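User: Second chain of the day. Same drill as before.
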Amino acid sequence: ERRGDVIIESNPRNGTDTIDFDSAQSVVVGGLYKPHRTVSVGATYHKRVGFEVDTTLFGVFLRTRVPGDPDTRESVTRTGDKFTVDYVMPSRWALGASWRALPTFTVLADLARINYSERLTDRFLIVDFQDPDAGLITDEETRVCKQPCNFSISDVFETHVGAEYRWYRPGFTMAFRGGMFSDPDHPLRFQSGGNNPDHPADPILNFRFNTQQPKTHYGFTAGWGLALKNFVQVDTAFSLGDDATEFVVSTVIRIR
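Assistant: Same format as last time:
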């Protein structure tokens, strides 16, 4: 859009660069109980850990004004604006059990709860629609989400089931593994309320973050392992899902 000698971009190019490092401590605890020689029940807890990193905005951002003239728009260059944000690995807990049905065959399952909502901290940065008239940010200096925040992420449950067959031979043991898992979506969602419902940000963010319906993805795993005389162990694992495929190889060498 041209206003006199000024061109206002309806879709300005912008983004953020996060090039930083930080360190933090976490805690992982677990317990195991064997009510029977063939049955094991266990639980684990991973404590939330957060990293403080600096992110830098670049490009031109659309700053919409509503009061007085709802058609007024202006492009604002934010290049070089730096903010501290939180990169969070959320806490999780899991409960599981295994049953050694045969000396060579074991089945297992577990249920895990991942608290993705912890990723939204008091430093959650609003990049789009930083205009105060939208009612999404605390102020133009910090530009963090006002509380309560208009964005949310749901916590989810994941399930994992599998089985392992071991082939014992003199001098080595070979293992064959297979299983499946669930991976529920946990997208960022926008919630109206407390913001300016007449601002264009409200319908635009509602469309952007709430149009796609979440679903649960399912994947399958396969693995193979070899242990040589309790000295060298090699394990391979293959994971196939509708949104990711992974192949992992690990080796353990016992020194003494």
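The chain has a mean pLDDT of 88.

User: Great, on to the next one.
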